[in-house]
Predict the 3D structure of the following.
Amino acid sequence: MEPRITLAETPKGLYELMQNIEIYLKKCGIPHSLIALIKVRASLINGCGYCLDMHHKDALKSGETFQRLYLLRAWKESPCYSDAEKAALNLTDTLTEISQTEPEEIADAYEKMRVHYTKEEIANIVLAISQINSWNRIAMLSGTVPGSYKGATPVAMASS
């Protein structure tokens, strides 16, 4: 499969803008392990093979366990996630599937987050969820090839 849109064919500044958000997220104080779980979970929901491949490889390289990654499909009943992580995964599901989400579900997800996170942390987690949803859409439309990811991106390598 050939990519439909290559990085060189994207509008000038688009990739840099997305990378700047990644840099911000790495420095915002949200644990990298939580951001990795959010990235994998949203990519599972969206069915983005390239992003699943990338974020599984990067998460394992940074110390995440294989078990916690493969149990993301069943995070609600899996004891390997903390209550704070479950609140963030719930918000990830809620916002990733927003077209199927009722306003009360959004309010409920927010209330679950407030128990574990400050408003600033919630805002940063929402940004992380939005960012991976954007990457999923870019990757899927551009036709990136699942399984072709070779290693950490420059941003990920800079934080290692």
